[in-house]
Amino acid sequence: MRVLTNVVFLSIFVILSTYMSSIQCEKGKLGEEELKSQKFPPCAACKVFTNSFKKGLEKTSRGKFEGGDSAWEEDKLGSYSRSEIRLIEIQENLCKDVERGQVQCQSLAEELENQIEEWWFKHQDIQSDIYDYICIEKTEHCCPKDHYGPNCTQCPGYPDNICNNNGKCKGAGTRKGNGGCFCEKGYIGDICSECAPGYYESYKDEKTLLCSACHAACDGPCRGAGPKDCEKCAIGWHMIEDKGCFDINECLKNDICPGNQFCVNKEGNYVCLACDKACNGCTGDGPDMCIKCAEDYHKQNNLCMNSDLFGRKKQENLARYLTYFGLCVATCIILQRNVYIASVIGLLVAMYISVSEYMIAHSNVQDTTANILGPV
To answer: Which GO terms describe its molecular function (predicted)?
Structure first.
């Protein structure tokens, strides 16, 4: 009956495992299909397509005619690098390397087949980058770098000081966006030419503005890096005239932490940490910082000790030494019958005792507080 029950449970387990595995596989396939069917904006989709074409160029860069006499074929058919055969090889594998938006990429490959052939045979020498030819010039899905909008307008600060080099131009490289500046953290303004609140000018010249964060002691603007440069102090700090902001030590206040916790001061703040389990109220971490000892603990040499600690240590030591003694007695009994076996066992016993004592001395097997108070 028990065997039958085990077989039934095993069968159920196998069926459930197979079912769950099939569900995971279906989810995986569904996830792959969703990635392949994902659609990008026109410029991003065109960039995915041309990147796939460029990978095809790299893969076929060392290719040659496969007829056997490549020198004769090069002479009669022209260079392989510009040949129709190479173009066909690239097109056959186009978009196969694309994980996200593969369907859209394949659709573009069909739609732009004539433009690709036109670039391949007529415009490679003039425009070596297929992205510029297809995405910017022919389809008008994208703009040149640092241009935006339907008419590919120049971004603010073009060409070498876009958004004061402290931000990004909205819509740059696409036919979208308004060309406004999206400033990096610490910068504000139409062209990111000012420091945001909480930041100060650490460097500035005709072309460069560098804004750095104010000290944590500051609430709002500041004149420099330190707490003395704050115009106003943040919570947890107080202003001293001509000296700046100084940290408030909240731990000096009475009863700032709840019961059986102690206070640790931090810059502009504080934290409450739990006392040692030996304590009933404390001023810091450890059994030597207790105000009072917890139940079942008593104070000795300024430490709160477990009242049962010494008794337990005596029992542990006694049991250990009795074990060693028993091993020695057993070795002596064997010695009377066979000297060689007794010698081997005696050596093993000695090694066992030595290793055991070493491990005890260098681990937490013995409570460290017992060592502080000396041998028991």
So the answer is: calcium ion binding
Within-domain flag for 51? yes
Residue partners of 2: CB distance under 8 A and separation at least 6: none
Q: Are 85 and 74 in contact (CB under 8 A)?
A: no
> Reduced to 3 DSSP states, what percent helix, strand and coil does the chain have, rounded to the nearest 5?
45, 15, 35
Q: Is residue 256 a part of any domain in this protein?
A: yes
Position 5 scores a pLDDT of: 45
pTM score, whole prediction: 0.60
Single residue among 142, 173, 194 that ends a domain in this structure: 142
Q: Is the peptide bond before 150 cis (omega within 30 degrees of 0)?
A: no
Give the confidence band of 84 by pLDDT, cuts at 50, 70, 90. Answer: confident
3-state secondary structure of 305: strand
Q: Is residue 233 part of a domain?
A: no
**Number of Cβ within a 10 Å radius of residue 196:** 16
Residue 269 lies in a domain: yes
pLDDT at 324: 66
Number of domains the chain is built from: 3
Res 348 pLDDT > 60? yes
Residue 6 pLDDT: 44
Could you give the 3-state DSSP secondary structure of residue 264?
Answer: strand
Q: Is residue 189 classed as helix, strand or coil in its secondary structure?
A: coil
Residue 74 has pLDDT above 60, yes or no: no
Please tell me whether residues 49 and 135 are part of one structural domain.
yes
Residue 8 has pLDDT above 80, yes or no: no
Cα 349 from Cα 343, distance rounded (Å): 10
The pLDDT of residue 186? 95
Angle subtended at Cα 225 by Cα 219 and Cα 227, rounded to the nearest 5 degrees: 50
Domain extent for 114? 38-61+80-142
> From CA 110, how far away is CA 120, in angstroms rounded?
15
